[in-house]
């Protein structure tokens, strides 16, 4: 599907479907919707609103056939909801719902839509066009490469903006939204691929082909030489050898150095503590954090941030076999901390531990890790918000703000030291798993042991939000690419030193 924006009236483009909107309670449409209503002899006001009772409730849609018109075949009237509740995040959700609706309609190949929100809603045209492009890209995503009957029904989707003063800003925002959407969808493609195709070595190959300042890939011998004992142990049970991936973007004049780390378990069977079969069905998604940071680095040059960005992925599988690491084993991380293995399915924190140690060697100003880490986070927050914790409240609050602006919800969990009690070991510095209660915070406190106190660090747990079994907000079922919009917003737009 080709997405584009044109400086033209919605009534001047021939299409199979024209999309307009109404705020809840509107009886006489104005603006572009009013112009369309006039063009079709008042069918929206006299028939859809008055006779059919369409109220403009948020997300509700009405398909109006327009027979024998010179340029229009159908009009889709979209409800914006209450005017005082409408914001850019709702607009993004609406754009996603609209394209999902359009994809179900027959004989619709060309679509034209007005620029929702830039009229009587009074939103900035740049932001309107940006979130519409994002929402349409996210909602229009489909992973159908393995379907023999897959078809792309909608060929073109055009946003029309008649106001020349608004158009230049809208076009700029639209292009930025397409770039964000492309970044999100590339990660979703990686996550949706079966684990047979996304192995640690394949992730490394993808990274090596990115247009970056430098990409370093470390193999098993290098990982052992760097004394990444925690990460190395997790990989032992798999026939696929691990890869440690370090991607670099270094602009000419960088204000600061940011390190982002994505959990890269390309398939998680649970190790010797084998997961139940039903829990294993989506475990190809355990590299969602890795997919997020790789996808960000794929497009980082196009965003042109004035900060140095390093992305790290400790990629491996967690499989049961005769060579797998075992309960009771004691591992030594890169910083010398020892870890007693209490549960082999608490493996992500082990790989992140060594990645965090490696990150310290880069002398970062900020470190952020993103991981499908704990089932406890799913219990606490479900699939509508990701958990966030860290050693620096200022950084955590900035990321929450960036998430809110980007349409991604982050909820700060506590970091009380008492939660670490269940991870204390009689024979090592710590255990890798403890009590079920407070498991999300305990995992974060485990990770904190591998971050220097003076380094601002945040941990984002996306266990409940990375892969959905039903649509939530703008995200359809399946992989979401969660965290990308938040991290991009922070990397590109945060100007603090």
Q: How is the secondary structure organized here?
A:
Blueprint: E1 2-6, E2 17-23, H1 31-39, H2 43-49, E3 61-65, E4 74-81, H3 88-103, E5 110-114, H4 125-139, E6 156-160, H5 164-192, H6 200-208, E7 214-218, H7 220-225, H8 229-235, E8 243-249, E9 257-268, H9 277-280, H10 288-303, E10 308-318, E11 330-332, E12 338-340, H11 348-360, E13 366-371, H12 375-381, E14 386-390, H13 393-406, E15 410-412, E16 430-431, H14 439-448, E17 457-461, E18 467-468, E19 478-479, H15 484-493
Parallel strand pairs: 1-6, 2-4, 2-5, 5-6, 9-10, 9-13, 12-16, 13-17, 14-15
Antiparallel strand pairs: 3-4, 7-8, 8-10, 11-12, 14-17, 18-19
Q: Could you give a quick summary of the protein structure above?
A:
The chain has helices at 31-39, 43-49, 88-103, 125-139, 164-192, 200-208, 220-225, 229-235, 277-280, 288-303, 348-360, 375-381, 393-406, 439-448, 484-493; strands spanning 2-6, 17-23, 61-65, 74-81, 110-114, 156-160, 214-218, 243-249, 257-268, 308-318, 330-332, 338-340, 366-371, 386-390, 410-412, 430-431, 457-461, 467-468, 478-479.
Kindly describe this structure.
This protein is α/β, with parallel strands linked by helices. It has two domains: 2-164, Leucine Aminopeptidase, subunit E, domain 1 (3-Layer(aba) Sandwich), CATH 3.40.220; 190-493, 3-Layer(aba) Sandwich (Aminopeptidase). Helix content is 35%, strand content 20%. It is built from 15 helices and 19 strands. The strands form four sheets. It has an eight-stranded mixed β-sheet, with helices on both faces. A six-stranded mixed β-sheet has the order 1-6-5-2-4-3, sandwiched between helices. A three-stranded mixed β-sheet has the order 11-12-16. Helix 10 (288-303) runs parallel beside helix 15 (484-493) and helix 13 crosses helix 15 (484-493). The longest helix has 29 residues, at 164-192. The chain is elongated, with a radius of gyration of 25 Å.
